Amino acid sequence: MEPFGVLDVIAVPIDEVNVDTNQLCPTRFNKVPRGPGYERILFHDRRFDAQGKEIAEFVLNREPYRKACIIVAERNFGCGSSRESAVYALHAFGFRSVIAPSFGDIFASNCLKNGLLPVRLPAEAVAAMRRQLHAQVGAHVRVDLVQQTVTGPDGAAHSFEIDPLQKRCLLEGLDDIALTQRYGTELAAFEARHRAAMPWLFR
Amino acid sequence: MPAPRTLFSKIWDRHVVATAEGDATLIYIDRCLIHEGSRHAFQMLKERGLAVARPQQIVACSDHYVPTLNRASGVGGIADEKIRGMVELLEANTAEHGINLFGMHDQRQGILHIVGPEQGITQPGMVIVGGDSHTSTHGAFGNLSFGIGASEVLHTLATQTLWQRKPRTMSIRIDGPLGFGVAAKDVILAIIGRIGIGGAAGHVIEYAGSTIRAMSMEQRMTVCNMSIEAGARAGMVAPDDTTFAYMAGRPFAPKGSDWDAALTDWQNLPSDPDAHFDRSIDIDARGIAPMVTWGTNPEHALPITGSVPELGAASAEKRSEFESTLAYMGIAPGTRLTEIAIDRVFIGSCTNARIEDLRAAADVARLGRACVPASVVPGSTPVKRQAEAEGLDRIFTAAGFEWRDAGCSLCTALNGDALKPGERCASTSNRNFRGRQGPNGRTHLMSPAMAAAAALTGRLTDVRTLVRGG
Question: Which overall architecture, per CATH, does domain B7-270 show?
Fold first, then answer.
């Protein structure tokens, strides 16, 4: 995983509530292996018509949002299916952070595993940021993971919470399997206890 | 006296392997369920040169991509090369790593959330993860079961553990008898309609109360299945005699002295009387009517006696959501739900394709004849065989319903079964998201009896009017 640096990039406002992972990656694309062209999958059925032509009104088909790297979203972004392809598609398009009042739990976990930072901020702060982005098309939002702050177009900084281990994994681009493998002794001891207490689980 | 604990806490505590900075906890995974969608996880496993740590604790099912018609020609006979490739890839990956696969021609084949319980793989007290959000289904047996993405499947395959933060707990207590024609599906749709699609985010729900206690395992599974549609990390029901009676004698259930020991353990799992929940909600079952969804997520659920919302009555925030939802669904504000005509009916999915679901649908199907295309897709091959032994298949086919082989089918529209653009489906599945059943398809969620009623009339229908009025 690439280490997460400071972002100071174009942010796109998406006002819709409950954007589910089926919108981010329509189910039929789950069978597509990752590779060139994967960015087309993102919001595919909202971005393209049945003939594969761009739908001009969709926000990601407009300049300067084709170069956006942050989404400022509404509540419950990424709800629904556990498909990690939704995050792969966001990543392939160039997104590195989504800021929202709340997220689907599985989606947020999937983001963190792929170097994409989900930032939870109070709903009023996120709504204000979206209004500023609508007013100043192409404005930047700055995300500083070390300081745990988001700075909106108006210059106001907002602090956010993140689990310390998740923060370290993102900053260092750490592979958490390698981290877990350091707990081999603890795991062996646990399995011995677990097997003794619940032998039927291991028949 | 130790502090009283919830069912969830008891299970969590006994699966902690280690802790790290903050509240990161390494928990042990007893079982991991996968399907054809595991391709990304196996690809990453290969790229990193990792082995599967505990293959005997991984369970694979061919369900999402398998055809539900014309299976005689085998996997090789699947016409679409990419769909066939997904089924073959799971066969190859599980063979390579020594993982137990319930493949397309296995007599126990079916949807992973139906196979696990049916085979006795799903047990109380376990931690079960699955590369599928409806893994919450298994919590009906009093375990902690939740869906994960491909990277966490990879982590589980490689280490049989996961890093997690302890979720919060939520008690949903439902008391009272269910009314005539009201099913478990209506209970969970009513709950989601009340707390919202994100209403339980970050929480594990424990369903309790006399209504839940009176439910069969099949009904409890329907309720727990859709916990994710309220945003919950997991849903669970305390194990009781109903649970144990269901489990006894299942192929993978503990046997002999193991059974006795397991039973003692399971009987101690229910939440202690004064256990603390972070949130609690009480629901009166008597107030629940047969439900249908009118919009594009499961929180857009209303009693069938109601009408689509009027935009004027909606808040400013809801107004734009409702406008775009109704435009997608092709319904005018204020339309009576029973006036909505449908094009197709789907009875199936991990939510509602167990034997009791098929019995409930057949009881309605026998009253008439389907006037729109309707298909019944059993959740597993054993469910299919049992239904056939009970003559349900003949009731369905006599009423003009199509009787198919087991799989996920039109719930997730991956195997080639899909709605055409604009088609409107009365469906017993779990998600009415835009495009879920095919690009620009329109989905109305409901119970099996309600879906069968819709098939007979060609519109959304209050099943109580059919059954009572004859």
Answer: 2-Layer Sandwich (3.30)
Closest to B160 in 3D by CA, of A168, A184, A175, A164: A184
Distance of CA B287 to the CA centre of its chain: 24
CATH tag, B292-469: 3.30.499.10
Give the residue carrying structure tokens 């999937």.
A110
CA closest to B65 among chain A residues: A31
Best to test chain B binding among A16, A55, A79, A194 (most B CBs inside 10 Å): A79
Band of pLDDT at residue B312, cut at 50, 70 and 90: confident
Q: What are phi and psi of B290, to 5 degrees?
A: -55, 135
- Cα distance between residue B302 and residue A89, in whole Å: 34
- Over chain B, what is the mean pLDDT? 97
Q: Position of tokens 């009093």?
A: B142
Decide if A99 contacts A172 (C-beta within 8 A): no
Full domain range(s) for residue A203: 175-203
**CA nearest to B330, candidates B287, B376, B295, B304:** B295
**Could you give the ipTM of this predicted complex?**
0.97
Domain assignment of residue A194, yes or no: yes
Question: Do A19 and A43 sit in the same domain of this protein?
Answer: yes
Answer yes or no: is A1 within a domain: no
Residue B290 is given by DSSP the state -
Query: How many domains does one find in chain A?
Result: 2
* Mean pLDDT score, B320-342: 96
Intrachain domains B7-270 and B292-469 with the same fold = yes
Bridge partners of residue B110, in order along the sequence:
B380
CATH at A37: 3.20.19.10
Asked if B258 and A200 come within 8 Å (Cβ–Cβ), the reply is yes
